[in-house]
Specification:
Layout (H helix, E strand, L loop, with lengths): L2 H17 L7 H22 L4 H8 L3 H17 L2 H7 L1
Helix pairs in contact: 1-2, 1-4, 2-3
Amino acid sequence: MHFHYLTELIQLSHEIEQLGIPNSRSASDEAGFIDTKAKVLEILRVLYGEKSREFRVVKLTYSPATVVKVVNYIISRSDRISPQTKAVNM
């Protein structure tokens, strides 16, 4: 996975978590979520393609928690699949 995309996903995950903090959800919070979700979708499109499960789940959901879970799953998976493990598996 490209390091640039990984760091951007981490940053977007934190932005979504901040939007999901229980308080009076305003229209600006929802607009912020939609913008952040679009950025996440663009990264997922580049990394995995539009037919990937990750892309489809994020595209179909309206829940910030679900988007954060998908992003955290990708981050944890990328930690397990480091260049060293790829070299060993070849």
